Amino acid sequence: MERALFLIFALTAIVAAFNVVLRRHPLQSALALLVVLGALTGLYILLGAYFLAVIQVVIYAGAILVLFLFVIMLLNLRAEEARLERRPLLRWLAIPFAALLGVEIISLVRLFEENPIPSGTSVGVTESIGRELFTTYLLPFELTSILILIALLGAVVLARREGR
Amino acid sequence: MTTIPISWYLAVAAVLFTIGTVTVFVKRNAIVMLLGIELMLNAANLTLVTFSSYFRELAGQIMVFFVMVVAAAEAAVGLAIVVLLFRHRETLNVDEAQLLKL
């Protein structure tokens, strides 16, 4: 049962990830990434990271990806499509190098073969994460708010129309 | 009760990371390159959660939390730059935005 769920989520994630790179229109790529994020949520739940699964849906799918979709629709890229010239040499070089990179990483992964995840782990419940976040990692957590504030100011300053 | 080997999760993360890298290198559209970066971040997150669950250690999941925050900040600033680029150049092709190139 667990393995079947894992295979479903993993295959969905990989197929959707291929769609991200293969689709022409950015909107379709963004929607494919949404499917990847959903499948990863399933994998997080299988790993017992329940809090992160919820956060993944709320922050990634709910905030970041909607921001992407918003910008894509705002810029209306239909006329843009034809102008993006193709560079076939780069594309054909990319495939063997990607395969090489994949083989490299997977050969590293083989080091951890036959080590099953202990089932029934639930270290990622909200209570334990919250306790850890507000005691051990309190300073990084507060710095995070400053980072978000800076990003907010940066985005506003960048997007502001200059010289009224 | 069958359990899932840790290498399966790591293999999925590896494949996702590779596809994200390919997206960044092959695509010339600035927004799709940012999408590829998000894909790579998610692959790294999956690795962190896997090891966190394997060692029964919370630090990995806290790290993922911070990665998500940084990803949100990066997306906000990156997309602001993209909007600015489009406003000035009427294009999203990163090959045409090379004024800083030597």
Q: Ends of chain B: how far apart?
A: 60 Å
Span from first to last CA of chain A?
62 Å
Task: Please give the CATH architecture of chain B.
Answer: Orthogonal Bundle
- Enumerate how many helices of chain A there are, as a single number: 7
Secondary-structure element sequence of chain B? HHH
Please provide a written account of the structure.
The complex is a heterodimer of chains A (164) and B (102). Chain A has 164 residues and is an all-alpha fold. Helices cover 77% and strands 0% of the residues of chain A. Chain A has helices spanning 2-22, 26-46, 50-75, 80-83, 88-109, 126-135, 138-159. Chain A is globular and about 50 Å long. Chain A starts with a helix and ends in a 5-residue tail after the last helix. The mean pLDDT of chain A is 83. Chain B has a single domain, classed as Orthogonal Bundle (Helix Hairpins), CATH 1.10.287. Helices cover 75% and strands 0% of the residues of chain B. Chain B is built from 3 helices and no strands. Chain B has helices at 6-26, 30-54, 59-89. In chain B, helix 1 (6-26) packs antiparallel against helix 2 and helix 2 (30-54) packs antiparallel against helix 3. The longest helix of chain B has 31 residues, at 59-89. Chain B starts with 5 loop residues before the first helix and ends in a 13-residue tail after the last helix. Classes of the chains: A mainly alpha (164), B mainly alpha (102). At the A-B interface, helix 1, helix 2, helix 3, helix 5 and helix 6 of A face helix 1, helix 2 and helix 3 of B.
